[in-house]
Structures are given as C-alpha cells and as structure tokens.
Amino acid sequence: MSINKVFLLSMVAMISACSNDVFITHTGNMPSEEKISMVFNGQTKNDVLEVLGSPSNVVSLDKDTWIYMSSEIKQVAFLAPKEVNRELLVIKFDAEDKVASIQKLNKKHGDKVEVSEEQTPNQEQEQGFFRKYFGGVGQYLPFGNGDSGLEP
Questions:
Q1: Which residues are CB-neighbours of 40 under 8 A, at least 6 positions away?
Q2: Across the chain, which distance is largest between two alpha carbons, in Å?
Q3: What CATH number is given to the structural domain containing 92?
Q4: Which domain covers residue 56, as residue numbers?
Q5: Do residues 59 and 36 make contact, with C-beta atoms less than 8 angstroms apart?
Q6: What is the dihedral of CA 87, 57, 114, 97, to 10 degrees?
Q7: Distance (Å, whole) CA 80 – CA 4
Q8: Tens-place pLDDT, residues 56-67
C-alpha cells in the first residue's frame, strides 16, 4: 500500500471519528414566556427590571431600548459554527421611562438590514489641513512628562 493511500485512509478515519462530535452552545438571557407575558405597555423601567431582570444589551445610541436575546449555536467537530436559532425581545421606553412597545423577533427577522444614507460627522472631517497633519507636533514626550530622569 502506498504512503498516499495510508495518509488518505487515516484522514478519512479521523474525520469520521470526529464527525459525531456535535457541540450546541446556548447564549443570552431570554426570559420565559410566562415572564414576558407579565410585561405590558405603561410599566416603568424598574417594573420591567424586576420581572425580566437585566437586559442583554441597552442600545448605546438610544438608552430607552432594551434588548433581551438568546441564540443557539451548533458546531460539528472542527467545522465552522452555525447559528441555528436566535430570539430577541426588544422593549422600547418613552420619554417618561414607561414601556412604549414590546417586540419579539427571531432569526428570520435578521435578514432585513436597512442602510441609512445619512452620515455621522467625525472630528477629523472638521479639522483643517494644518491641524490634521501637524497638530501633534511637539506633543510626543518619550519619557512621559518631559523629565528624562537625569539630574542636570
């Protein structure tokens, strides 16, 4: 038997031995349906916190949107992991910190992505040429505070 056949047979044996290794990982903190049914429009943030616990995420640009999420990820042996299931509970609060809307989403809703044409200005766009390219001149201090540590 040639060395190539031995190598090929050993690779097939290794792959078939590992193909039975299935890893399923659950992440997130999705509350139970019973707890979700206890939340309704008009409740305060504290009420929701007592019933559902802390959210998985609070939207950074809109502190009035709480997201509870969970996902199930499946990985077979050494192959790339694949998300099997995803659930989201999005709770939006109004200006008075009371529940304005409750929305349940799943993996099927994740396909829609709306791209905004608006642009967010950043600091570099507002700087002039000289400030942008020469603004840091003289600010480099190789020894921290400008003290070399040597006695004069």
A1: 99, 102
A2: 80
A3: 3.30.1450
A4: 21-109
A5: no
A6: 110
A7: 27
A8: 888 888 889 999
